[in-house]
Amino acid sequence: MPTQATAEQERVGVLLPLPLDGPYDYRLARGVPATRGLVVAAPLGPRQSLGVVWDKGQGTVDENKLKTATPLDGRPVLPAGLCDFIDWVARYTLNLPGMVLAMALRSRQAFEAEVPRIGYGRGSTTPARMTPARQRVLALVADGLARSVPQLAEDANVTPSVVRGLIEAGALAEVELPEFTPLPVPEPDFAAPALNTEQGLAAHLLRGAVAGHHFGVSLLDGVTGSGKTETYFEAVAEALCHGRQTLILLPEIALTVQFLDRFAERFGVRPAEWHSDVSQRERRRVWRAVMKGEARVVVGARSALFLPFASLGLIVVDEEHEQAYKQEDGAIYHARDMAVVRGRIENCPVVLASATPSLESYVNAASGRYAHLKLLRRHGAAVLPQVSLIDMRDARGEPGTFLSPPLRQALATTLAAGEQAMLFLNRRGYAPLTLCAACGHKMICRDCSAWLVEHRYRKRLVCHHCGFETGLPQQCPQCGESGTLTACGPGVERVAEEFRSVFPEARVAIASSDTMTGPVETQAAIRAMVKREIDVLIGTQIVAKGHHFPQLTLVGVVDADLGGSDGDLRARERTFQLLHQVAGRAGRAEKPGLVLMQTRNPDDAVMHALASSDRDAFYEQERQFRQATQSPPFGRLAAIILSGHDGEAVRKAGRDLARAAPASRGIKVWGPTPAFYSLLRGQTRERLLVQAERMVDVQAYLRTWLAGVTIARSVRLTVDVDPVSFF
Ligand code: ADP
Ligand code: ZN
Ligand code: ZN
């Protein structure tokens, strides 16, 4: 009788890291208690899937069809905080819970049994023949610790054969070592700086919040170079003192390199690292150490938010305004917003740090929902740079040049003084558009409604959206004329070309987020800049963020108007933040900095705020605009993106959806309209936008709406709650 056996085997809902609607019913192996978070192997068709015991089960599967899920070795259990967090994120973002779980189970190997390493410690015999080399090895192991052969050889400064000789002689004995050496523990007082008054006050409040172990959000709002990092490091020190873990989120992997060293200077050792560039093996190590509470501080990209912290005491989101925190593919979510949620679930403080906060955080701080900690001055002798606008309607140089006479003059002065300069242009490649001078034909991508960008160095036209590339044609594909295709506008390569022709002596490097030149080269350029091996760094936004170049005194913004007016709700805010960050790179040490911005709209509010260094005037204006239009954070937005290869099916799905949208108070539905890139990777894209009043439950509305519409299988539907990109 099967009922007899199942009586002691509990039915549970197991969440699988797969695109399913919810947990799937299983029964647990005999005698295993149904603990939420228990990691199991669950049979799924012909294979076994990793899964997590989630709830009591829905009763959807017949008792006699239930399959048995088995706990993994050592019975690992995901912490309750992480399970609750996964549920919350799935509910809020409308991602399938299994897909959110998949982000938490990224390191599948984390659950495999450890493979012990062989090490050697002091053996029972003393060798008959003693040499100085042998003596050094034996002196080393006198501390009672075991080490591997290469480690012994290195630490005792002997050849491995000396070590092997001692093993044969029985003077060293075999010991099993754990697979991973324990992560080093940062020391809270290793090199604590003397804080200035402003920093001290902010640090005191942050330390208090960590010691109190309560949820609360602080906006650490400090001008570039004011010591925000030093200040939140004090909060990290406090968490270390209490034996609790800290998560520090950075917007980009490129920023972690400098950060790890800086952390080590302050705390004696590097923190654990978590992002897509970390090796599988290291991830396995970090994942386990985080779950055991041994990884005290983790620095990572947004995916680190889904780590199984045993006892989280602090979350820091550095450069919190960065758009990179929004994950746009796979499960869509905003890591800054979800960090606040995780903090609430774990009941720990959250610190958001920025010199140019997001308008959302600014409003929350102004209204008192977040504590507002301000650092108004740069640390030490450094003062904020002077920002001047160059009106390109008057100051334009010869046709086809992009560095105006005043900017060239300033570059000459800086180079003559032996100081460093940076030229900023947020455009990769040589030219953003190639146009036929005879017929006006624009070179666009085969699969996207986007211009092909010329990369002259590689002699290619490249689509920055899908990666399609082609050689530069001799003749215009439209009218057949030859020699008429003309590069329009500058990218960083073209600026570098012009710079080299004017300053042939100067040492120059290009840094861009270009996958074509590679992140390694970008890192090399940044390091060369720090070491003063180059005079001028020409770069895209990759150089704008976070980097500290002490000898940099001049920043030239080649085109400050870029991205200013594409109808995107946050375009102005983003332009302001980016240019402010760029400007903040100048004059971070003793020498004062100068920032020159080339613009055709010197009277624009963004330019005005930058030139007059009146940041809050800009925020106030932007706040009023958002309030008047009921835009975030005064209203809610959600986007629905439909895409597919069958353009007609996509458009039909859009019309069907719009027709089925339930009428509801406080909710407007716009669209469907073709997306900005109406063709991307060969797929047609249509968008609908939901605009709701602040108090409306948008998620409930979306769920009801979407449940009532059937969409062709060839059409993919993506929900983006709180969209930040409108492409
Ligand atoms: P922010 O993150 O606000 O831009 P940083 O934390 O990077 O500023 O600090 C800028 C520079 O000033 C860094 O080189 C940092 O080490 C230094 N600094 C800041 N505060 C102190 C302090 N209290 N003592 C010594 N150096 C400091
Ligand atoms: Zn032509
Ligand atoms: Zn393309």
Gist of the model:
The protein has 727 residues and is α/β, with parallel strands linked by helices. It has 21 helices and 31 strands.
What are the key terms here?
six-stranded parallel sheet; Rossmann fold; binds adenosine-5'-diphosphate; GIY-YIG endonuclease; 31% helix; alpha/beta; disordered N terminus; seven-stranded parallel sheet; single chain
Walk me through what this model shows.
The longest helix is centred in the N-terminal third of the chain and has 16 residues, at 197-212. By secondary structure, the chain is of the alpha/beta class. Helix content is 31%, strand content 24%. It is built from 21 helices and 31 strands. The strands form 8 sheets. It has a 7-stranded parallel beta sheet with strand order 10-11-9-12-15-8-16, with helices on both faces. Mean pLDDT is 90; it is low at 1-7. Bound molecules: adenosine-5'-diphosphate and zinc ion (2 copies).
| CATH topology assignment of the largest domain | Rossmann fold
Q: What is the CATH class name of the largest domain?
A: Alpha Beta
CATH superfamily of the largest domain: P-loop containing nucleotide triphosphate hydrolases
Residue share in β-strands: 15-25%
Strand order of the largest sheet: 10-11-9-12-15-8-16
If you compute it from the alpha carbons, what radius of gyration comes out, rounded to the nearest whole angstrom?
Answer: 29 Å
Please count the helical segments: 21
Cofactors, ions, other ligands: adenosine-5'-diphosphate, zinc ion
Label the CATH architecture of the largest domain. 3-Layer(aba) Sandwich
Label the overall shape. globular
Number of strands: 31
How many domains, as an integer?
5
| Residues in helix, % | 25-40%
For the record, give the distance between the C-alpha atoms at the N and C termini, rounded to a whole number: 60 Å
Structural class: alpha/beta
**Low-pLDDT segments:** 1-7
Sheet with the most strands, sense and barrel status: 7 strands, parallel
Mean pLDDT: 90
